[in-house]
Amino acid sequence: MRKIWILFALIAVTGMNAQQTGEDTWGSWFQYFGMNRISDKWSIHSEAQFRYYETSSNFNQMLLRTGANYHISDNAIATLGYAYIDTDPSFGELNTINEISEHRIFQQFLLYNKVWEFKIEHRYRLEQRFIDFGEIRGEETQHRARYRLQVTLPLTDTFFLNFYDEVFVNFQNNLFDQNRAYAAFGVHLTENSSVQIGYLKNHFSNTSFDRLQFAVFYNPDLRGLFKK
């Protein structure tokens, strides 16, 4: 009988640990992306993301990112940028760690090409991360590399499908950071705006999360405002 009670206790503890991470709960990411063209060679990247452990509640993370894009050609863009990230790593009301804040500098290179009807984007990114874990762990500087392969398939002039896979690699301990696999249905609203509704599988070394994504893309041409 004692062994049975010990077994039940272990199962309960395991369930509590799973609940703390929110792994079994569908979350959501609400996103805005913009490439604001100010000249033939330069544009400004603008981005805001709000991420939740559940579909419409239980805040997880806010990410604000901007950067200067240099258009090398129609098929290649280099970016230098900055991001601020505010993270609540606790699921629900289980506040086991302080809030995490991060300042991030990144360098990025985008390369575009087309194979048959498929539009392909390669994104290479380096990140220098200045993270404040709070009183428990203090401040750390981390370095990371990311590569994303994205494929877009136009269905009509209005509708399209979008897929990507992105791998994250650390330059410090634990080489593998995470992998993100994404599939979405998109709609072109105007010539320079679109929306996507999709599904993201965010896989870490010890856990994985299912996330619904709602994204708005708006790429205005502001070159007329900056002409002398």
From TrEMBL:
<dbReference type="Pfam" id="PF10677">
    <property type="entry name" value="DUF2490"/>
</dbReference>
<protein>
    <submittedName>
        <fullName>DUF2490 domain-containing protein</fullName>
    </submittedName>
</protein>
<dbReference type="InterPro" id="IPR019619">
    <property type="entry name" value="DUF2490"/>
</dbReference>
<feature type="signal peptide">
    <location>
        <begin position="1"/>
        <end position="18"/>
    </location>
</feature>
<keyword id="KW-0732">Signal</keyword>
